[in-house]
Design goal:
Helix content is 36%, strand content 20%. With 393 residues, it is of the alpha/beta class. It has three domains: 4-39 and 197-278, no CATH class; 51-64 and 105-194, Rossmann fold (3-Layer(aba) Sandwich), CATH 3.40.50.11270; 75-103 and 283-392, 4-hydroxy-3-methylbut-2-enyl diphosphate reductase, catalytic domain (Cobalt-precorrin-4 Transmethylase, domain 1, 3-Layer(aba) Sandwich). It comes from Trifolium subterraneum (Subterranean clover). Its cofactor is [4Fe-4S] cluster. Its EC number is 1.17.7.4.
Length: 393
């Protein structure tokens, strides 16, 4: 759950200005309004969560489903690494594991509640509005449990397939207000697995809307979490990165540039009346980034990053390794390794690369980390495939 929110009072028309005094964009971004002024998303959601067809706490099957999840997704190799100070040597290969990695508690809870829903409604039709998390194996597992994705045609979700009495799961990233409204009108059973860090961001955006602030949302425009957050905003701008504005990397500079603009326009003494900045990156994402920063300080020959290729938080882990000049391989499953000394992986900017003879001969030191949507089992499977390849060489 990794994006940033800033708030400033801007003219309710559009922004398109030049650096350094104003933000310089390669294209003009229109300030958009997400909802009718007579409709209050916060009040609607509050009423929805109090309804008898809404559940976000599970169905009393936590112990049963957690046993199943642990059986399917935990790993003896990961436990061995943790028990030995996050570093262990097999033959002439030393594996170093980041001290924060893999499933965060919000992701684990979302998957667990989805499993509970299937147990609770064994004969019901169960839908999910999007991927439960950004992990292809976990999503495939839910498909095997007959939890179906709402079909999408030409970029639009086809909610007409959902019938009264069906069960609909909202994923860990949440769902946009208009989707929740549609489902409420259909009188379906809603199982909400939205991470509480996501809903906290919604509350922040909603609060600042009342102060007539424009929300500047740093994230991917079509990402489920960004779409959901924007639906709670009034006026908002979505910026993916500073490449869109011919500037620097947005994670570090977007908020500061806007803040400086507000200072120049209104004066330092008045800036707090016009600009507010919130770091809305969740603790788990920050902890994994801090852990890989510590890991890349160690001597290593290569890095293995495991996580869904559409996972923003995993892409940042890959980015950190790339910035340090470490040969880093971002895979979404262990099947990307092999046959033989071959790997298919993604770079941080999205390019898919296939490489032969990626593992050098001789003693190796390998760093390993994974994104918040990656079960331990799939990080360890990647390690096992690496070791098998080395033994085969």
């Amino acid at each position: 759950m990794a994006f940033r929110a800033n708030f400033c009072r801007l003219p309710a028309t559009r922004i398109g200005v030049s650096s350094p005094d104003r933000i310089r964009c390669s294209k003009v971004f229109t300030v958009r309004c997400s909802a009718d002024s007579d409709f209050d998303p916060k009040v609607f959601r509050k009423n929805l969560t109090r309804g008898e067809n809404y559940n976000r706490k599970g169905f009393g099957r936590k112990e049963e489903t957690l046993k199943l999840i642990n059986r399917e997704y935990t790993s003896d190799i990961i436990e061995t690494l943790k028990e030995n100070g996050y570093e262990y040597t097999w033959g002439n290969v030393t594996v170093m594991l980041a001290e924060a990695f893999g499933f965060c508690w919000g992701v684990e809870k979302a998957v667990q509640i989805a499993y509970e829903a299937r147990k609770q409604f064994p004969k019901h039709k169960i839908w999910i509005t999007n991927e439960i998390i950004h992990n292809p194996t976990v999503n495939k597992r839910l498909e095997e449990m007959e939890v179906e994705r709402i079909p999408v045609v030409e970029g639009k979700k086809q909610f007409e397939v959902v019938n009264e009495g069906d069960v609909v799961i909202l994923p860990a990233f949440g769902a946009a207000v208009d989707e929740m409204l549609t489902l409420s009108e259909k009188n379906v059973q809603i199982v909400d697995t939205t991470c509480q860090y996501v809903t906290k961001v919604w509350n922040v955006v909603e609060k600042q809307k009342k102060g007539d602030y424009t929300s500047i949302i740093h994230g991917k425009y079509a990402h489920e979490e960004t779409v959901a957050t924007a639906s709670f905003a009034g006026k908002y701008i979505i910026v993916k990165n500073m490449a869109e504005c011919d500037m620097y990397f947005a994670d570090r500079f977007t908020g500061k540039l806007v803040e400086r603009t507000m200072m120049r326009k209104y004066g330092v003494e008045n800036v707090n009346e016009h600009f507010i900045s919130f770091n809305t990156i969740c603790n788990a994402t920050q902890e994994r980034q801090d852990a890989i920063y510590n890991l890349v300080e160690k001597d290593m020959d290569l890095m293995l990053v495991v996580g869904g290729w559409n996972s923003s938080n995993t892409s940042h882990l890959q980015e950190i390794a790339e910035e340090r000049g470490i040969p880093s391989y971002w895979i979404d499953s262990e099947q990307r390794i092999g046959p033989g000394n071959r790997i298919a992986y993604k770079l941080n900017h999205g390019e898919l690369v296939e490489k032969e003879n990626f593992l050098p001969k001789g003693p190796l030191r390998i760093g390993v980390t994974s994104g918040t949507s990656t079960p331990d089992k799939y990080g360890s499977s990647g390690v096992m495939n690496l070791l098998s390849t080395l033994i085969g060489n």
